[in-house]
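Entry 12.
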Amino acid sequence: MFNKIIFTGALLVILAPAAAFAQTNAPGGAASGAVTGAVGGAIVGGPIGAAVGAVGGAFVGGIIGDQQPQFRQHVVTQVPQSYRYESDIRVGAVLPETGVNYYEVPAEYNVPGYRYTYVNQTPVLVDPRTRQIVQIIQ
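Predicted 3D structure (tokens):
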């Protein structure tokens, strides 16, 4: 247990400057991503997972603040096919390999490498490599 704490502390010290850089270059994106990462990390790895997830999430970011309603409107106007998901829609949920349609996020939202989909009539941001929901668009 002590080794995990030391490792996590060292990882946080190493990644802190990069997280600060992310905050200065994506206003709000790092903060939003840190919260999202902390929640996902806590689900998977408890308190230590929350700490590591918060730092990792700061790099991920997300669609932030005032952009969320605009992005939601974009999704609705595209009329995407909604996937029916039997479980709760939550950050960290992994979508199935088949049956889900993923769409490009316009460059203006600054989330390169991510896709969105419509799940139970709710737009979500997804990491296409893991099919994991990284943000629920409000």
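Annotation: The longest strand covers residues 122-127. The helical segments are 2-25, 29-60, 67-78.
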